[in-house]
Structure to design on (90 residues):
């Protein structure tokens, strides 16, 4: 049965393989990734960030905010993977 919106004799329109294979457009949420960390947590913080970046954020590029009760050390900042980061104090 032909749908009513198609005129008599019209067939269905096929979708080319290129269009069918194309990913849907992405609409990113307005988001930021937060982490509470101390300077002494540098190794575990870097591992956690790398996991999230590898599995999720590499597709989206959300910025990171690290929170600490004292200024982050240069060592902590240097170990952070390349991505948008901010370093505010609590």
């Amino acid at each position: 049965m032909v749908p009513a919106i198609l005129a008599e004799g019209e067939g269905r329109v096929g979708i080319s393989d290129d269009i069918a294979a194309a990913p849907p457009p992405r609409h990113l949420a307005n988001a930021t990734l937060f982490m509470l960390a101390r300077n002494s947590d540098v190794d575990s913080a870097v591992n956690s960030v790398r996991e999230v970046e590898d599995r999720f954020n590499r597709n989206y590029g959300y910025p990171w905010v690290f929170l600490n009760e004292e200024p982050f050390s240069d060592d902590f900042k240097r170990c952070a993977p390349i991505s948008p980061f901010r370093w505010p104090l609590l």
